[in-house]
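Morning, I've got a small favour to ask if you have a moment. I owe you a coffee for this, so here goes:

…
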Amino acid sequence: MAKPPIDALTAQIATQSWMAEWRRAWVRLHPNKECPMLAWEDYSPNEQGLMIRAVRAAIAAATPENVAAVIARRED
């Protein structure tokens, strides 16, 4: 069964959520270094579009099996 397309607002929210998760991981791994990830507004519209496309591709590639594997790793 094909997944429904993701609208622009949902894709932007998913991208910003991914960025927040990335920042949390960075701070956990590098507590004494400034995070290189900028705020969403600091990226150009072109850069924002590229990030949104990458997140859309990741969502399209997601299957129940690989999502379950990621969740299992986080619980460790």
